[in-house]
Amino acid sequence: MKNNDPKLIIVSAPSGCGKGTIMASAFENCDVFYSVSCTTRSPRPEDIPGKTYNFLTVEEFEKMIAEDGFLEHACYSGNYYGTPKKPVDDNLAAGKDVILEIETQGAFQVKELRPDTASLFILPPSVAELERRLRKRGTEDEETIAKRVSQAAGEIAQADKYDYVIMNADIDKAVEDFLAVINGIKGVAGPATQFSPENENIKEMIREVLENA
User: Fold this and answer.
1) Is the pLDDT score of 75 beyond 70?
2) Long-range contacts from 196-200, C-beta under 8 angstroms, 24+ separation
3) At what angle do helices 19-26 and 171-186 cross, to 10 degrees?
4) SS3 content of the chain, % helix, strand, coil (to 5)
């Protein structure tokens, strides 16, 4: 990917949708800056502080809010999440593309502040499959899973507000589609209009995911 015209790109997907796996594969050989969000949630066993998240106390997070230190922030499943502003702006100024992995509430905040930001939503095959993946992960209790599934349905219902939508039913195909979107955003390939929610096929795909709950 060319870096002479750095892009700010939002990637959103419900928890358990595999967005981390997709991005790790897609950006393996690309010089991009992956923005590390801040959160007040407790670390999971697989988390690496400073890499998966920057873990803050509620007091630390609220201090950054007061100091206008976030590009966006939101409360999600009872915890704060936010994108620190300075690393994003520093890397864009240095000519690097910046990837924001954030949920819908934060994504719409960023799009309002910076309309030229590109946005991509990754769908699960169905809400039911998403719930199965969350249970298989085995890191959360039943109440938390129920909250995540309910929140996921609400996020998926807003997928048509994104610039692009793909599905992760097959990881290899999802990575291929993801790269097609990113290359289209970067202008190194044709526009990825087949993934636009204005496309009737994408609209139908979103409907089917929600109906197969």
Assistant:
1) yes
2) 196/163, 196/164, 196/165, 197/159, 197/160, 197/161, 197/162, 197/164, 197/165
3) 60
4) 45, 20, 35
Q: Which of 198, 192, 42 is nearest to 118 (CA)?
A: 192
Q: What is the residue type of 109?
A: Q
Q: For the segment 8-34, what is each residue's pLDDT rounded down to a tens digit?
A: 999 999 877 889 899 999 999 888 999
Query: Which of 51, 44, 38 lies closest to 16 in space, CA to CA?
Result: 44
- Domains in the chain: boundaries: 8-211
pLDDT at 4 over 70: no
Contact residues for 187 (Cβ-Cβ < 8 A; gap 6+): 2, 5
Using pLDDT thresholds of 50, 70 and 90, give the confidence band for residue 3.
very low
Fold for domain 8-211? Answer: Rossmann fold (3.40.50)
Hey, what are 159's tokens?
Answer: 């997928």
**Do 91 and 98 meet the contact criterion of CB atoms below 8 Å apart?**
yes
* Distance between CA atoms of residues 153 and 158, nearest Å: 9
The number of beta carbons lying within 10 Å of the beta carbon of residue 16 is 22
